[in-house]
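step 4 of 6: structure.
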Amino acid sequence: MKHDIVIIGGGPAGLAAAIAARESGVEDVLILEREKELGGILNQCIHNGFGLHTFKEELTGPEYAARYMEKAQEMGIPYLLSTTVVDLQRQGDSVVVTSVSKQDGLLQIEAKAAVLAMGCRERPRGALNIPGTRPAGIFSAGTAQRLVNMEGYLPGRRVVILGSGDIGLIMARRMTLEGAKVLCVAELMPYSGGLKRNIVQCLDDYGIPLKLSHTVVDIEGKERVTGVTIAQVDEKLKPIPGTEEHFDCDTLLLSVGLIPENELSKAVGVELSPVTSGPVVNEQLETNIPGVFACGNVLHVHDLVDYVSEEAEQAGRSAARFVQEGREAGQKELPLKTAGAVRYTVPSSLSPQRMGEQAVVRFRVGRNMRKATVRVLVDGKEVLKRARPVMAPGEMEQVMLKKEWFTGSEQEITVEASDGQEG
Amino acid sequence: MVRELTCISCPLGCPLKVELDESGAVLSVTGNTCKRGEDYGKKEVTAPTRTVTSTIKVEGASVPVTSVRTKTDIPKEKIFACMEEIRKATVKAPVHIGDVVIKNVAGTGVDVAATKAAV
Ligand SMILES: Cc1cc2nc3c(=O)[nH]c(=O)nc-3n(C[C@H](O)[C@H](O)[C@H](O)COP(=O)(O)OP(=O)(O)OC[C@H]3O[C@@H](n4cnc5c(N)ncnc54)[C@H](O)[C@@H]3O)c2cc1C
Ligand code: SF4
């Protein structure tokens, strides 16, 4: 089977990329999705808070996904459901995508270009190293979200949550509304990784205590969790003896962060960033493998779906252009470097020749900052300066780079965020 | 009296200070970045409201539940009464996005509508 563009993953990123590729003039686009329906993680995110930026109204996750699904349907974009992509290889001028499904068995598709849009998954709990036995009743927050919101099953009645990421906070409220008692949310760090508005409307509204600088030191129960013990930690994140507090509970939820899903990307030899765990891309969102593009949570973890859609549209347009024009050889690529508190940038390189009138650069900072300044430097010369009253690791930032800043002789671009303190 | 709040109208989460007189009337709101913060601050100290999102049981569909929301905010103290009604209700498939599944939930005058189709 042959197709022009194959899109791997039918979440918000895959849908927006497919729509943009069609709108850019490539007819033959196919979406492959592992689940029984399109929409990705949004299907289980039933809370409101999506799309403020794009639609100027506060939608729930499924409503946001439906807007894109309807559009894709109107355009007649084909998709295969319950189809898992298991391998990706560059062969000659094409990308060979191998998938499996119950209905079609093994499928090999020869594509001119592929867009990676596989999203992310939760960090495995093995990495957590919690002592004690491993009884039933321990769930990741995302698994609990799926059980409650899609299967209609409440996984526990008395709950302790470890980690204050947004999914944990949202689930604290959700389980409370369904009649469970959430005893506390324990967070190892002295600050929460979740949005402040979620602390207010998910914890404060229901009187759920947030215990900062606390961790789980013991889990009790043979077959099912019967209780957990938490303790305060010192600056080195070591539990402080004598601060232990016991909770009788039947469930422990872990909300300890997300990580891009890149097993496939590795298979095709896509270079991954050690900071984001996602592919290294240029301003076209193209990876080091020609014709393979990436967008959404597989590229870097996003907290606002609006930016996922925007980024994915860019990837769809780039893939279409690749199919229509091929890759222009001999482009000079300028590396994007980070300075100050900036942890990474997406993209990590840019070609002034190839870029459009402007290019978006998204980034995150590594710590909370007040009265910060964001600067962009080209060969050390400042081309953009912006004041930011507050910046936080939990929130993605962006700057626009303009084609007019470059003449062709430049060597590097630096994105910097500072507030007078080190790093 | 001054009450310190966090605006929840957008992800920025501005810290607000709302100044009240003895009768509980709002004298001023400060700390907000935009007008919505001022509105939120006034409402939060006088008559706080929230949107409720949940799931409702569906009969005759390929899924056991589908997701719902209150069409607009409801008074905060009505959240659990609203949840009680949602939990007791069952709807018949097919359900379309936007279909009203409960009218005037908990006497708030606000309807509960489906946010996801179930067939
Ligand atoms: C719990 C939670 C709460 C959130 N809350 C908000 C919020 O309030 N507001 C907001 O704006 N944003 C929120 N977000 C962020 C936003 O929802 C996500 O960033 C966005 O959905 C990511 O889209 P995506 O398409 O990249 O990934 P996903 O939605 O994860 O989609 C990826 C798709 O790829 C499929 N896939 C993966 N691997 C394969 C394979 N090998 N073969 C075929 N298919 C595959 C998956 O099945 C999935 O459908 C939240 C995210 C989470 C997790
Ligand atoms: S005041 Fe305005 S900018 Fe600040 S959190 Fe509220 S809505 Fe957002």
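step 5 of 6: annotate
 - The helical segments of chain B are 35-46, 79-88.
 - The mean pLDDT of chain B is 94.
step 6 of 6: archive
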